[in-house]
Amino acid sequence: MTLTRYNLDNLNNIWNADKFFNSAWDDLFFRALPVKQKSLGLVKVKDLDDHSEISISAPGLVKGDFDISLKDDCITISYERSKEDNPRLFSKNAFSRTWSIPQSTKAKDISAKYDAGILTVSIKKNAKAAPKSHSIKVL
User: Fold this and answer.
1) 85 contact partners, CB below 8 Å, separation of at least 6
2) For 112, what's the count of Cα atoms within 13 Å in the CB-facing half-sphere?
3) Where does the pLDDT of residue 113 fall: very low under 50, low under 70, confident under 90, or very high at 90 and above?
4) What are the Cα distances from residue 95, in Å, to 4, 32, 50, 63, 71?
5) DSSP assignment of 19-86, as one string?
6) Residue 19 in contact with residue 12, Cβ under 8 Å?
7) Is the model's pTM score more than 0.85?
């Protein structure tokens, strides 16, 4: 007669009912549903010599959907779009981002253009006063 030694830990891992049922339960009820992503709100910021540009990809919107506000040396660009085809199908897309801008920037220094699904906001750079330099003598 031959005695065969079994490793009970391996058997428990293979036939672990708790693990099997918890995994099945999680897969059945708590699995993340696939979400179709659209290319809304993609942002590109360019810093040029005389101005800065913020470009936002927002296809399918109209000029009136955007809200651009200037407050406390920050510019906020946002939009919100809701669509209801019937009572059971609806969607809502929203976007809002805020950037710091130089303190000397006024509303007249900012312009916006919406063309071919891209909103471009230009912010003029004001000429800065040359920094004053002082020499200090060492005693």
Assistant:
1) none
2) 20
3) very high
4) 66, 23, 27, 14, 18
5) HHHHHHHHHHHSPPPP------SEEEEEE-SSEEEEEEE-TT--GGGEEEEEETTEEEEEEEEEEEEE
6) no
7) no
pLDDT the model gives residue 122: 94
Q: 3-state DSSP call for residue 101?
A: coil
- Judged by DSSP in three states, 10 sits in helix
Exposed, middle or buried, 59 (CB in 10 Å: 0-12/13-18/19+)? Answer: exposed
Lowest mean pLDDT among 31-35, 64-68, 133-137: 31-35
pLDDT tens digits, one per residue of 57-110: 988 888 888 999 998 889 999 988 877 777 777 777 888 999 988 887 888 889
The set of residues, in sequence order, having a beta carbon less than 8 Å from that of 124 and lying 6+ positions away, is: 50, 51, 105, 109, 110
Dmax (CA) for the chain in angstroms is: 102
Question: If you average pLDDT over residues 52-58, what whole number do you get?
Answer: 91
Fold topology of 42-124? Immunoglobulin-like (2.60.40)
> What distance in Å separates the CA atoms of residue 11 and residue 113, rounded to the nearest whole number?
67
* Tokens at 106, concatenated: 């006024």
